[in-house]
Amino acid sequence: MVCAVDRMVMLLLLVGSRLSYSAKSNVILQSFDDMVLECAELMSITPFKLTALRSGMLVKDAETMCLLRCVGVTGRFWSDYTGLRKEILARYFLADAADILNVNRTQSCLNDLPALGLDPEHCCSLALESFMCFYHNYGNLRRDRVFVPLDYLQLQHVTARCMEVHQITMEHLMSLSEEEMDSNDNLHCLVRCIGIKTGIYSDRDGVNMDLIYAQYGEGYCETEFKSNAQKCIKQKSEGTYGNACKRAYHLLYKCFENVRNVITEYELHDSEDD
Question: Belongs to which family (predicted)?
């Protein structure tokens, strides 16, 4: 009788839940305005000045410059060590389809800026000037939310969570040869898990090329990165893999094994920390 009751409770729980449940992702979507508000609060910007900034009145004082730097750091389009990621900042602007010279104008403006220095105040100034090149030349600032690449700590959290779920230790991961990786079911599911949690992959749509380049493509030519991956994905999509994990492994890892990817990004940082 007790077993029958237990089965009935379980059945009710299953019926009451969504059978087509999809895993919660760690994807971050933020608008430019969201990031301005967040940074203004963190930096104690006065309401009066914030209102002026949001209306487009950008005064080039130290407070405004460092606020824009904070926005850049939050949106992952600015780093004091590597400078501007143009392709990330461009995502916050909507270009006029008829304006075929916007990219050239923006690049010309960026070329006139001084080199990146180590002085914090200089970084704030350069972050603002880089943004202004886009603001005046690239297009209109978007109001909707866009994908924000995860930083290293966020990626580490996602990877550690997926490793725990699929029972893979760091030592085991680092010890696998290429042949062992190709045949390890748990590793295949790890790759799929990271892809789903970071929003760069789904079983239905496969690899999201724009998002994977935003997340892992820093330092690579965008055209070459995407072209090489597309050719590989087209070829491997025709294969039969037997399960979703193995398919994800081939599309999301094997097609990106020569560039920064879901596994090497984690391994490289771990090795550097050692």
Answer: Belongs to the PBP/GOBP family.
Buried b vs exposed e over 42-66: b needs ≥16 C-beta within 10 Å? eeebeeebbeebeeeebeeeeebbb
**CA dist., res. 163 & res. 142, Å (int):** 37
pTM for the model: 0.80
Q: Which residue has the tokens 């760091």?
A: 170
Domains, in order of start, for the chain: 28-148 (1.10.238.20), 152-273 (1.10.238.20)
Q: What amino acid is encoded at 182 in this protein?
A: D
pLDDT for position 175: 92
Burial of 24 (0-12, 13-18, 19+ CB in 10 A): exposed
Alpha helix stretches (DSSP H) within the chain? 2-16, 32-42, 47-54, 62-74, 86-89, 102-111, 120-137, 152-165, 170-175, 178-183, 185-198, 209-216, 222-236, 244-248, 264-273
pLDDT in tens, 86-110: 999 999 999 999 999 999 999 999 9
Euclidean distance between CA atoms 223 and 64, whole angstroms: 34
Q: Is 204 exposed, middle or buried (0-12, 13-18, 19+ CB in 10 A)?
A: exposed
